[in-house]
Amino acid sequence: MSDTAFERYQARRARKYLQRQEQTARWLPGWRTHARRRLLVVLLGVVFAAMIVSGVIAALAPTPGVLIFAGLCLVFTPVWTSLQIVSDRGDSPTGALDERELAQRNEARSLALTVTQTLTLIPAFYLYLGSRWEWMDGTTLATSGSILVLACLLIGGCSATAVLAWTRPDPDPEDESDTYRKGTA
What would the pLDDT profile of 43-59 be if each residue is shown by its tens digit? Predict the structure, then answer.
C-alpha cells in the first residue's frame, strides 16, 4: 500500500524532530530539572504580562509602547528557545511519542487552543470598540491592538509547551533509556 502525502510528511517530520532532539540533547543540562523548567515558565509569564502592559502603554503613548514591546520580544526569544530545548515534548510529532506522551501533548494542545481563542477575543473586541471611539486615532488603535493580538497569540502558542514543562516530573535516574531527558545522550 502506498503512503499518502500526509503520511510521508509526518514520517519526515518525525525523522527531523528526532535528529534535532539528538542534536540538542546535551544543551542546557542544568535547566532540565523540574524547578528550572518552572522558572522558565514563570519568566515567560512575566514577559507575556509585560507585553500586555506594553500594548496598554501603546494605547496611551504609541512609540514607547512599541519600543517596550520590541525589547520584550528580544527577551522572549532566548527564554522561549531555552524552554523549548529543555521541555522535551512540546512540539514533537506523533511518530516520536508513546501513547502516554501523545495523550499529554494532545491535552496540552487542546488547552493551548482554548487559551488562544479566549485571549484573542479581548483585543478583537478592543479593536472593534476602539474603532468607535472618537478620542483615539486609528494609528494608535492599530498599534496597541496589534501588540495585544501578538501577545495573546504568543501566549496561546507557547501554552502547550509551558504546561508540559510545568507538569512533567524530573526524569527517573534509574531509567537508563531516558538519556534525552537527563541531558546525557
Answer: 999 999 999 999 999 99
